[in-house]
Amino acid sequence: MELREAQKRWLDQVRSISGVTLTEIARRANMNPSSLTQFYNKEHRAGTLETLSLRRISDAMGVPVSSDALGEAGPLNSGFREIEAEPYQIDLRSPVSAAVDAMIDDRDHVHPWTLRSNALDMAGYRPGDILIVDLNGKPSAGDIVYSNLFTGVHGNYLKGSIVAAGLDPDALPESDPSKMNFGSSSSKAWRDIWGAGQGVGAVKQVLPAKDVVARLTREYQAARERLKLS
User: What does the angle CA 8 – CA 14 – CA 18 come to, to the nearest 5 degrees?
Assistant: First the structure.
C-alpha cells in the first residue's frame, strides 16, 4: 500500500508539472487511459504500477520517477529498450486494438506486446504478432521436467516448451550419456526445449536485467554491512 501511495504522489507531481490530466498522460505514454485512471481512483485495486509503466510515463512527460515510487526496482535507465518486442499501442479506433483491450479487461499486470524478432518462431509466433503477457502466473517446481532425453545427460527443462514441441512431459523416454547429442534431433535443446534452473519457484517478478543486477548489488552490499566486511 505504501508503494501504491508513493506512485500516486508521483503522478500528482507529473500532473502538476505538465498541467494535463491522467488521460492525457496515458495517451502520451501510449498506455490504456482507463487502466491508469482506475489505478489512481479505485482504492480497492491493490495493484501498483510496474517499472515499464513508470518508465513510459517518465519518458513521455520528462519527469524523473521518484525513488519511493520505484520501490525495490531501483533507478531507471531511460535509455532501456526491449529488443525482442515492444509494448503494443492501444488505439480503440482499430477493431484489433479494441479486441486486445477487451482481452486485457483492465487486469493488473497484463500487457500486450508486439513481437519484433524471430525468437519465438519455433513456437509458431512471427514478427508483428501481438502477445498478451500475464505476469500474474506463479511458476512452481511442477513447471520443471528433469530428463536426459534431449542431450543424453540429465537437465532441467521447462514443461511448456516440451509440450510445444509435441512431446508428453510426463512420459519421456530415457536416454544415456553414450547418446549425448546437442542438436541432431528435430527438437533441439535450448532452441526448442528450454532449460530452467531449480529455483523457478523463487521468481516473483519479471524485471529488466539491469533492475535485477541493481537489486543484487544492493543486497550484496547490505549483506557485507551485516557481516561487518570492509
Answer: 150
Domains of the chain, earliest start first: 2-73 (1.10.260.40), 85-134 (no CATH), 141-200 (no CATH)
What is the maximum alpha-carbon separation in the chain? Answer: 69
Residue 171 DSSP class: S
Q: How far is CA 185 from CA 12, 120, 124, 148, 165, in A?
A: 57, 19, 19, 13, 11
Q: Can you name the residues that pair with 195 across neighbouring β-strands?
A: 157
The CA-CA-CA angle for residues 200, 202, 207, to 5°, reads: 85
Neighbours of 104 (CB within 10 A): 18
- Whether the Cβ atoms of residue 80 and residue 54 lie closer than 8 Å to each other: no
State the residue for C-alpha cell 490530466.
21
- DSSP characters over 119-149: TTGGGT--TT-EEEEETT----GGGEEEEST
CA 148 to chain centroid: 30
Contacts of 199 (CB under 8 A, 6+ apart): none
pTM of this structure: 0.38
Residue 216 one-letter amino acid: L
CA 171/CA 158 separation, integer angstroms: 15
Q: What is the pLDDT of residues 36-49, one digit of tens each?
A: 888 888 766 557 78
Interval 158-198: pLDDT, tens: 888 888 778 888 888 887 766 655 544 556 666 678 777 66
In 3-state terms, the chain is what percent helix, strand and coil (to 5)? 45, 10, 45
